[in-house]
Structures are given as C-alpha cells and as structure tokens.
Design brief:
Radius of gyration: 55 Å
Number of domains: 2
Distance between the termini: 137 Å
Structural class: mainly beta
Strand content: 25-35%
Number of strands: 14
Shape: elongated
Largest sheet: 5 strands, antiparallel
Oligomer: single chain
CATH class of the largest domain: Mainly Beta
C-alpha cells in the first residue's frame, strides 16, 4: 500500500518503464546504384530551396505514399537530359528508366551509308603518299648520247680518203658554222655549245677550220637554244652551195619543228640540191668532210652532217 492509502502494484523485476520517444520516420530505401546526376549529397540533407539543388518544389518526404516525386537534373542548356528519379510506392523504392532524348534527325542511316572510323590517334605512322611530279614543260636532265649517232648521206659522192671528222665534243651540240666561200665552199669551222641539264645551251665556241680560205669567211649562229638539224647542199664535183637550218631543242624532239634558217654560201648555180635532216630525236653534233684541190683551189668536196641522240632523261 502506498503512503496515500492506495494499493501498490509490484513491477516486474529488471524491467524499466519505456521512455516515450518522438515518432521517427523510417528512412526511405534508395536504390543501391542511383545514377549520378551531378548534385552533391549534402544538398539533399540541408533545408535549401529545392530549386537550388535541382529538385522540384515538392519535397520527397512530404509526398503522399501513392505519389512519386520527380527529381530533375540541373539545367545544362537546351539539350539538357531529363531523368525520372526512383519512384516511391508504399515505402518501397522502384528503379525507373532514364529517358535520354535522341538528337533531331533521322536515325535510319540506310544500307548505302558507310561508317568511317575517324581515329584521333595523331601519333601513328602515316605511310607517305607518292605524288607524281607536275610536268611544267622542263626536262629532268638533258643529255647528248655519244654512243648513239646517225650520219646523213654523203654529198658529192663518198670520199675515198682524207676524211676530216669534226666533232663538237662530249655533251656539246652544233649551233653554227663559219663558212669560207666564193663560187664554191672552200672551208668550214664549227660553232659548238654545251647542253646543260636544264635544257639550256651554254656559250658557243668556234672550232678549228678544215679546207681553204678563198672568198673570205662569214659567221652564222642559231638563235638561243636552237641546234643545227639540217644541211641543204648543192653539189656536183664539189660543194657548190651550203645552208644550215636550226631547230629549238624541245620542239624538235617533240614534233620535229624547225627553227631559223642560216645564210646560204656558195653561188655557182651548179650541182644537185638535197636536204638532209637529222632523224627524230637526234640533233647536230658535228660533220664529216673531205677537202681537196679543184681548179687549183682548195675546196670542200664531200660533206655530211653528224647527229646524236638528245634526251631529257
């Protein structure tokens, strides 16, 4: 009995009376691997405004049990991705798919579209591309072949002896003549120039004379970068008349185009006229002659042009 006369009740041993505690809401289970939406965790623990952390104005804790709350990711421009957060139904978390809108435009590429692998590995070895050189009309390397020569026919018959072989020399071509003449051709001397690798001719130099000196001399040279390719001859017992014709190097090799005609020398009016040309691809590099007495005067009696192959390779 208690002091105030009431009846006492014995409490069970070792049992403490329960202490009233405020109601605590059980935490809502979140999915094990919620997608990362770029929002810091502590933003959801604070009492900040939902717009500051990318949430809707409706807080998840205040939502009715049968209503799911949407969580929006932070705006990142017009193309921002909107995703649905986990739906909360009857206290149980359900994973919801993330909707990712595709870019505008057709997605059906069709069978005619090929996919190109544009690798960003700039450090890989790229095989060299063999680009053919552009032909600007200039040769690679011009040259005169000393081993590939042709001679035009002898004029005034083929000599039997005492032939003078007049040669310009290695890498040189015939670019003119010095002629001694009156009624007949008495003597000749060559003018020769080196053919440079770029197709241009160097300085012309006069060679030695063969034959006589009656009648005086005249120098006749081809224009720049032209070479003798033709002898026009009137001949009977001796060379009555001689005229040389030149040709530009490139034009002659390409299409046998002639250039300048040099002056004619000798004026007897006799003999048979012939024109003797170098073959295609060949140009003058000298001549052969035989001289002798004719009416007690030294004359050129036999003559032919010597040609060699000229090439830009």
């Amino acid at each position: 009995m208690t002091a105030d006369g009431g009846e006492a009740f014995d409490a069970p041993p070792d049992v403490e009376a329960p202490i009233d505690a405020p109601d605590v809401e059980a935490p809502i289970d979140a999915p094990d691997a919620a997608p990362d939406r770029g929002v810091a965790d502590d933003a959801f623990d604070s009492g900040d405004d939902a717009s500051d952390v990318g949430m809707t104005d409706l807080d998840i804790g205040d939502a009715p049990d049968d209503v799911a709350a949407d969580v929006l990711t932070a705006d990142v421009g017009d193309g921002a991705i909107q995703s649905d957060a986990a739906e909360v139904l009857d206290g149980e978390a359900i994973d919801a798919p993330v909707d990712v809108p595709l870019a505008d435009g057709p997605t059906d590429l069709g069978s005619d579209v090929s996919i190109v692998d544009a690798s960003t590995d700039a450090g890989r070895d790229v095989p060299p591309v063999d680009v053919p050189a552009v032909d600007g009309g200039f040769p690679i390397s011009w040259n005169v072949s000393e081993s590939d020569v042709r001679n035009t026919p002898w004029r005034s018959g083929e000599p039997s002896s005492s032939i003078d072989n007049v040669r310009c020399g290695a890498g040189r071509v015939l670019v003119g003549l010095t002629t001694w003449s009156s009624l007949y051709v008495s003597g000749l001397a060559p003018w020769c120039a080196p053919l440079n690798p770029d197709g241009n001719l160097g300085m012309a130099v006069q060679g030695g004379r063969q034959g006589g000196t009656v009648g005086g001399s005249d120098d006749d040279l081809c224009p720049a970068n032209q070479v003798v390719v033709r002898f026009t001859i009137n001949a009977g017992g001796v060379i009555d008349r001689l005229q040389a014709t030149c040709a530009p190097i490139s034009a002659w090799l390409a299409s046998r185009t002639f250039g300048a005609q040099l002056r004619a020398h000798g004026d007897s009016g006799g003999g048979t006229r012939t024109q003797d040309d170098c073959p295609a691809g060949y140009m003058g590099v000298g001549y052969d002659l035989r001289d002798g007495d004719y009416n007690f005067i030294e004359r050129v009696q036999n003559l032919r042009l010597r040609c060699a192959r000229v090439s830009d390779r």
